[in-house]
Amino acid sequence: MSPSHAQALGWMHEGTELFLKALESLDDETLGAPGPLPGWTGKHVVAHVAANAEALGNLVHWASTGEETPMYSSPEQRNADIDAGSQRPVDDLRRWPAASAGRLAESLNTLAPEQWAREVRTAQGRTVPATEIAWMRSREVMVHAVDLGGAVTFADLPAAFDAALLDDVAAKRSTGADGPALVLAPVDDDRTWAVAGAGRPATVRGPLAQLTAYLSGRPATGLHADDGVPTLPRWL
């Protein structure tokens, strides 16, 4: 279940600040080193987050005017833009995320209620109301603040955000059902999350933040399952 619009907007702003602080904490050498995402350095993460704000700005334009403006012209163009962006001069690259995030926030502030309700299409092809843009953006900045490889972990993100992300990823993985069946049982939360998949469900226990990292395909610690924690396919 997606969070409320107001909650997602709050997380979007909080996540942006967290991402920018994480970026500021990294020196240029660390930023250029390979990170936890296959084939990407920290520079790729920065370019992706900055370009994502601009792509979501296309959806804001769509919501504002009714003119269909997709996030990206194609997946290939998206990837090419990230690669090109990662090659920007480092000072320019460091300024880009704050600038693009600021423009996105300003454009969102102009939307009237009927424009927020207008349907747009995500990069994955889902048709959603424009209110979903804030949740889409909060996921990007929060999760990629962790991916920068600095001091930020999923435990530093709001617990309610981690739970909402678990809702989202569990639903996505269940739709594809191309991985193992799971039951995620946090030791610090009364809820459980079921993921449809192959075989008898494996119950994976651990802290909520670490289960969120695990299900989203990030390194996780402190998890336990009777027959070992299953390996997962990619989330996206």
From TrEMBL:
Q: Where is this region: Disordered?
A: 67-88
Write down the InterPro entries for this protein, in alphabetical order: DinB/YfiT-like (IPR034660), Maleyloyr_isom (IPR017517), MDMPI_C-term_domain (IPR010872), MDMPI_metal-binding (IPR024344), SCP2_sterol-bd_dom_sf (IPR036527)
Q: Report the superkingdom from the record.
A: Bacteria
Q: Name one Pfam family in it.
A: MDMPI_C
* Entry annotated with the keyword Secreted: no
- Name the NCBIfam families on file: maleylpyruvate isomerase family mycothiol-dependent enzyme
**Protein name per Swiss-Prot or TrEMBL:** Maleylpyruvate isomerase
Q: Which organism is it from?
A: Humibacillus xanthopallidus
Lineage runs:
Bacteria, Bacillati, Actinomycetota, Actinomycetes, Micrococcales
